[in-house]
């Protein structure tokens, strides 16, 4: 499903070059449930942004379902992002003075789904993450963990085939974190959705079946989850 | 040092009243090292915002060093915030297109400290959180965990007597989290700084000496850290 070959990302900051990703070559198959781990600044979010078609590599290839993403037009990339991929950003990226419901409905507006159906799906997604009752609250009226869950609901609402979640439980208490991981696990086992989670917590990574570890832009470890 | 009596915070959202804090009465002494825990939406950030003089309660009292904060003018509150309290926000609240160094220097500009001294203190604070070499990068060029550490450095730079940190390790890998907690522990034991940390992770709370647990705006548990 996902194939990266010699994926490299270099940021130029003045006269310094930061190699955020350094020749990353790996494959993630359909219906896998994978954790991406590594130190702060090791390249995890950069990798996720490229997988999610939100950013392009400096060099190397990214094949999504056999198709070279580097050859796609901006329009084609936007369609993939809206239809096939659900993305939970490390910083949530919610609209602050917009309600939870409207934030969650946003991806569906691109799919020409009737308003009634959009609302129904969005309320369902908010229910799944435990936010029933908060649908009309604006993002800036929600707690940190509630905002994080709105971002998660938004990633689920368009029935994506791939979920990319960058630290989705960073601001959640243990019980809520485990509920969310239970949701991801169910989407993976029941619906065959490929789930890739960036996390730094081992008890969150424990829900997944494969651990990929980054350091300084490189993959230094890639193994099955022994504790499963 | 910190005394709250029947502290209550009610948010009005349309015709609904959300009781974010419900009669919270507790005391935190000087040089204490305390963890505040509880489910998402239980009132932790609301409590921290009031302690940090960033918000006022709906009813009840907050005494800081014996002084009723409710009786202070906006100007006096601003002085307390800038001189006595270091605050790490759950959402960091950094200036995005401003360098890490400038973000960290910001609190010092209120203290009429000469530019050379401001820069020196800020570089030192960035070094303490492991960000030497990143001082000139803008916030939006830093990873999530790097941004979080800029926010922590900014809270340390004005030598506060109280540090209030709302989920300061939520986006940090385990090793970096433990380094940061080591910094807080040292500031507490060597400098007598009162440190109050919101966290949902038990191995982070393990660094502290007292655990306060919130649920639905109330304190349901308040005990020493047994594992110390
Ligand atoms: N500005 C606001 N307007 C309305 N309601 C608010 C506002 N800020 C917080 N609330 C509500 O108050 C309650 C407590 O919020 P608070 O941010 O203190 O929770 P928290 O314990 O910090 O949660 P988390 O662990 O998710 O960060 C929540 O139910 C939230 O929806
Ligand atoms: N827009 C940017 N411009 C310049 N450098 C960047 C940019 N984004 C990221 N970087 C750098 O690339 C490196 C990798 O960043 P990335 O965000 O992928 O790390 P991460 O593994 O997600 O870290 P964290 O766990 O702290 O979120 C870091 O050194 C960071 O400073
Ligand atoms: Mg990141
Ligand atoms: Mg909070």
Task: Write up what this structure looks like.
The structure is a homodimer of 228-residue chains. By secondary structure, chain A is α/β, with parallel strands linked by helices. The first copy, chain A, has seven helices and ten strands. Chain A has a six-stranded mixed sheet, with helices on both faces. In chain A, strands 2-1-4-5 form a four-stranded antiparallel sheet, with helices on one face. In chain A, strand 4 and strand 5 form a beta hairpin. The radius of gyration of chain A is 17 Å and the shape is globular. The model of chain A has no long low-confidence stretch (mean pLDDT 95). Chains A and B meet through helix 5 and helix 6 of A and helix 5 and helix 6 of B. The structure holds adenosine-5'-triphosphate (2 copies) and magnesium ion (2 copies).
* Ions, cofactors and other bound molecules: adenosine-5'-triphosphate, magnesium ion
Mean pLDDT across every amino acid position of chain A:
95
Oligomer category: homodimer
Q: With helices defined by DSSP (H or I, 4 residues minimum), what is the helix count of chain A?
A: 7
Poorly predicted ranges of chain A: none
Largest interface: A-B, 35 and 35 residues
Order of helices and strands of chain A: EEEHEEHEHHHEHEHEE
Which range best describes the helical content of chain A: under 10%, 10-25%, 25-40%, 40-55%, 55-70% or over 70%?
A: 25-40%
């Amino acid at each position: 499903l996902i194939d990266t070959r010699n994926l490299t990302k270099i940021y130029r900051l003045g006269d310094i070059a930061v190699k955020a990703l350094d020749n990353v070559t790996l494959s993630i198959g359909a219906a896998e449930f994978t954790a991406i781990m590594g130190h702060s600044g090791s390249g995890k979010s950069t990798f996720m942004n490229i997988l999610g078609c939100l950013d392009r590599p400096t060099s190397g290839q990214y094949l999504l379902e056999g198709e070279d993403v580097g050859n796609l037009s901006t329009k084609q990339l936007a369609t993939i992002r809206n239809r096939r991929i659900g993305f939970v950003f490390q910083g949530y990226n919610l609209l602050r003075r917009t309600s939870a419901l409207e934030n969650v409905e946003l991806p569906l507006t691109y799919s020409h789904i009737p308003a009634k159906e959009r609302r129904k799906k969005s309320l369902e997604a908010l229910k799944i993450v435990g936010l029933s009752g908060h649908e009309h609250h604006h993002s800036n009226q929600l707690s940190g963990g509630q905002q994080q869950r709105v971002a998660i609901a938004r990633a689920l609402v368009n029935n994506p085939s791939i979920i990319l979640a960058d630290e989705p439980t960073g601001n959640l208490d243990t019980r809520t974190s485990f509920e969310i991981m239970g949701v991801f696990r169910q989407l993976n086992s029941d619906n065959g959705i490929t789930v890739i989670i960036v996390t730094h917590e081992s008890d969150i990574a424990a829900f997944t079946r494969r651990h990929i570890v980054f350091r300084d832009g490189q993959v230094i470890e890639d193994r099955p989850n022994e504790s499963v």
